[in-house]
Design a protein that fits this description.
By secondary structure, this protein is an alpha+beta fold. The chain has 2 domains: 227 residues, 3-Layer(bba) Sandwich (FAD/NAD(P)-binding domain), CATH 3.50.50.60; 120 residues, D-Amino Acid Oxidase, Chain A, domain 2 (2-Layer Sandwich). Helices cover 38% and strands 29% of the residues. The protein has 12 helices and 20 strands. An 8-stranded mixed beta sheet has the order 6-5-14-15-16-13-17-20. Strands 8-2-1-12-19-18 form a 6-stranded mixed beta sheet. β1, α1 and β2 form a beta-alpha-beta unit. α1 runs parallel beside α6, α1 packs parallel to α9 and α11 crosses α12. The radius of gyration is 21 Å and the shape is globular.
Length: 388
């Protein structure tokens, strides 16, 4: 098989890149290790920067998002069970969209199918060859090995994928910070406790109140990494959540059985460079952020923005300037998002060695946000997404 761009990974970043390139007349093949049902069952983030909304619109997949998504003009921060509002629209003149990553992936798969794009699911043993200058990809499907010749490879296959591992160790440099706690997440078929997200700092630990739709809520508690899901009954989770969130939210919280419950560790990770010859790293293949700043999917989309620009210019005009600049352009925005996510995580979580002094510093910083429009503006412009 021959294609112009072979995309490794059938998640939202790989599918969005394929959609944008297809609309520009560039041929792509998407290889995905898992079956489609598995990809569409993954519970992921739900806050989309307005730049991400624009990218989905540009790809022609925004119609259902605008119909079913929730536009948020602000968010709530809480300290000592009292909330303050960060008004995005008043501070920076833009908003965010709450629309689940699973739904984004559904829309992209539907668009890929409608345009007859090739997605090869359950592609096993994907291997990258001929790098950096003459790439091709081999994989096994139903016991038969196949080969795809291509001009470029886009590695959209996540942190544990094969793409980043294809870069020479002498070239690749990684940076990592592992946080000493995790998030216990619960999905419940209950109405959200607030029409906007609540980020809560509490002496017992962080909590987040989020949503997927009008009757599907997503809640998180900071827990030690030694905790296991089995230790947390539904009752224990709801009782602890009430302790950490603003009093008025705790009083109106609607509880119900957890339909999904899991514990996720938190880390910051960046790999440099994001390009080696004709191989590009996209999204989690190159960087991971703690979910506190709602940047994971949005950063993957910004990578797709830079890479789609570069490849469209290459095939349309024959210019390679943006191809060569891809890594630097993407990383400049990545590191700013890494900083913001680190700051939000540090501000809102209780660390194992935290003292009363440290807690007072956190409370003071949140109080400063309450009374300083300049401080709230910095938070808002980073949360809604820095420009591409």
């Amino acid at each position: 098989m021959r294609t112009q761009v072979c995309i490794i990974g059938g998640g939202p970043s790989g599918l969005l890149l394929a959609q944008l390139l297809h609309r520009a007349g560039i041929d792509t093949v998407v290889l995905e290790r898992r079956d489609r049902a598995y990809v569409l069952s993954r519970i992921r983030a739900g806050v989309l920067e307005w730049g991400t909304v624009g990218m989905l619109d540009a790809a022609g997949v925004g119609e259902r998002m605008h119909r079913e998504g929730f536009v948020h003009g602000g968010t709530l921060l809480s300290a000592r069970n009292r909330a303050i509002r960060i008004d995005f629209e008043a501070l920076v003149g833009t908003r965010v969209m709450v629309y689940g990553q699973t739904e984004v992936t559904h829309d992209l798969y539907d668009a890929r199918d409608a345009m007859g794009g090739v997605v090869i699911d359950e592609a096993e043993g994907v291997t990258l060859h001929g790098l950096p200058d003459a790439p091709f990809v081999t994989y096994t499907k139903d016991g038969t090995e196949h080969r795809i010749d291509c001009d470029y490879i886009a590695g959209c296959d996540g942190f544990h994928g094969v793409s980043r591992a294809a870069l020479p160790a002498s070239l690749l440099k990684t940076f990592e910070k592992v946080y000493p706690f995790g998030w216990l997440g619960v999905l419940s078929e209950t109405p959200p406790v607030s029409h906007e997200l609540i980020y809560a700092n509490h002496e017992r630990g962080f909590a987040l109140c989020s949503m997927r739709n009008a009757n599907l809520s997503r809640y998180y508690l900071q827990v030690p990494l030694t905790d296991r899901v089995e230790q947390w009954s539904d009752t224990a989770f709801w009782d602890e959540l009430r302790r950490r969130i603003p009093h008025e939210a705790a009083d109106t919280l609607v509880t119900g059985p957890a339909i999904e419950k899991s514990i996720a560790p938190l880390r910051s990770f960046v790999a440099e460079p994001m390009r080696w010859g004709r191989l590009f790293l996209v999204g989690d293949a190159a960087h991971i952020v703690p979910p506190t700043g709602a940047k994971g999917l949005n950063l993957a989309v910004s990578d797709v923005h830079y890479l789609s620009q570069a490849l469209i210019a290459r095939y349309r005009d024959g210019t390679e300037d943006l191809v060569e600049a891809y890594s630097d352009r993407a990383l400049a925005r990545v590191w700013k998002a890494i900083r913001f996510s680190w700051w939000m995580t540090t501000l809102l979580h209780r660390f194992p060695d935290q003292t009363e002094f440290d807690q007072h510093i956190q409370n003071s910083e949140i109080a400063y946000l309450e009374h300083s429009s300049a401080a709230r503006t910095v938070l808002a412009e980073n949360y809604v997404g820095l420009p591409y």
